[in-house]
Specification:
This protein has 374 residues and is an alpha/beta fold. The chain folds into 2 domains: 195 residues, Glycogen Phosphorylase B (Rossmann fold), CATH 3.40.50.2000; 155 residues, Glycogen Phosphorylase B (Rossmann fold, 3-Layer(aba) Sandwich), CATH 3.40.50. It is built from 17 helices and 13 strands. The strands form 2 sheets. The chain has a 7-stranded parallel beta sheet, sandwiched between helices. Strands 10-9-8-11-12-13 form a 6-stranded parallel beta sheet, with helices on both faces. The protein is globular and about 65 Å long. The model has no long low-confidence stretch (mean pLDDT 95). The protein binds uridine-diphosphate-N-acetylglucosamine. Uridine-diphosphate-N-acetylglucosamine binds next to helix 1, helix 5 and helix 11. The site of uridine-diphosphate-N-acetylglucosamine (UD1) has 19 residues, from helix 1, helix 5 and helix 11.
Length: 374
């Protein structure tokens, strides 16, 4: 049975792995093996997601931890190469745009092992973002490219990446979202709102972790001040990423932040309940722009650009800065916000589409994947 090494490293990868891994396992046409690089290592950033997403323990844990980009990227390559040489997989599957995505595709290609990239083709056109470098380079060496939206196909074509290897399959995050929504009943939903002292649609949910927002002291001060001011009108819930938490302490902002409900990172299911019931969301994450579009919850993205433009054109998302954010919040509170149109193939069927591409290319009797992918 062909062996597929599925690589994850950071929190947003886990929801993308789960639907594909579980389907590959169920269908039993391939042998999927999980490699976790350990880029995220805290229990609540990593293990808890494996539990909630019904994933087994990873087959390989590389324990690379944090470091500068070069250190982290280099360490992952060194450790992942050892796994490749031991497992000799037929295909390496990578997800999203984190450092693990690039490092592992590069290590695999150097050993002539084909690479499939799930969530290919997204572009912010902002090379100051490490994720943009990871996306471009990973796509440029991938053999199979699975795109979440049509803009992804257009971007790849403009970069001269073969159309033959590109498959528009839809958004894999939504597969996990559809599944978890099916497991949330009214009682669980009520229990979560009560636990956090919330009423539906009477609070805002905030997640911020990008270096541009949280590593610069003056920017983080402005954000925390704004949220503190808003907390007079609306309850603010802010589950903090470790990067943000460290900086709130380091910049001496703990007192101002006291007006906001600052929490540890939340479990997936709990987070989705709070997302679904929020009046609006303020974020700089990629995946949350998509989840709010699916859930028809207004989303303010505190960035200059997004690699997910379909959330702007069809969804509930808008880009904001600290100068116009107050006006946007007012519009939302007055009930004057756009409604969503769920993008094509954001339907829970993405893992099925990916598996059927793999089967078509490589099902019983087909040539080995290395030949197919050339
Ligand atoms: C990474 C991804 C980003 C993704 C984000 C989601 C890259 C370049 N960035 O950014 O695309 O949106 O994950 O969360 O791959 N830390 C902990 N515990 C952990 C993990 C990290 O304390 O479990 C600390 C690290 O020590 C570091 C900081 O958080 O100080 C940032 O972690 P890192 O993995 O470098 O990048 P993220 O900001 O999480």
């Amino acid at each position: 049975m062909p062996k597929i090494l599925c690589v994850v490293g950071a929190r947003p990868n886990f929801m993308k792995l789960a639907p594909i891994y579980l389907k590959l396992k169920r269908d039993n046409d391939f042998n999927p093996v999980i490699v976790h690089t350990g880029q995220h290592y805290d229990y609540e950033m990593s293990q808890v997601f494996f539990e909630d997403l019904e994933l087994p323990e990873p087959d390989h844990f590389l324990d690379v931890g944090s470091g500068s980009h070069a250190e982290q990227t280099g360490r992952i390559m060194i450790e992942f190469e050892k796994v490749l040489l031991k497992e000799l997989p037929d295909l390496v599957m990578v997800f999203g745009d984190v450092n693990s995505t690039l490092s592992c595709s590069l290590a695999a290609k150097k050993l002539n092992i084909p690479v499939a990239h799930v969530e290919a083709g997204l572009r912010s056109f902002d090379e100051t973002m490490p994720e943009e470098i990871n996306r471009r380079l990973t796509d440029s060496i991938s053999d199979l490219l699975f795109t979440p939206s049509r803009d992804g196909d257009d971007n790849l074509m403009k970069e001269g990446i073969s159309k033959e290897n590109t498959y528009f399959v839809g958004n894999i995050m939504i597969d996990s979202l559809v599944k978890v929504l099916g497991n949330i009943d009214e009682m669980y939903e009520k229990e979560m709102l009560v636990r956090h002292g919330l009423s539906a649609k009477e609070y805002a949910l905030v997640t911020l972790h990008r270096p541009s927002n949280v590593d610069r002291k003056e920017n983080l001060i402005r954000i925390i001040d704004f949220l503190g001011g808003l907390s007079g009108d609306l309850k603010i819930l802010f589950p903090v990423h470790p990067r943000t938490s460290k900086n709130i302490q380091a910049f001496g902002l703990a007192e101002t932040a006291g007006k906001i409900d600052i929490l540890e990172p939340l479990r997936y299911k709990e987070f989705i309940v709070l997302l679904k019931n929020a009046k609006f969301v303020l974020t700089d994450s990629g995946g949350i722009q998509e989840e709010t579009t699916y859930l028809d919850v207004p989303c303010l993205t505190l960035r200059n650009n997004t690699e997910r433009p379909v959330t702007l054109t069809q969804g509930t998302n808008e880009l904001v800065d600290m100068d116009n954010i107050g006006g946007k919040v007012k519009l939302i509170l007055e009930g004057r916000w756009k409604r969503t149109r769920i993008p094509e193939f954001w339907d829970g069927g993405v893992s099925g589409r990916i598996c059927s591409v793999l089967n078509d290319k490589w099902g019983a009797g087909a040539a080995s994947i290395s030949n197919v992918c050339q």
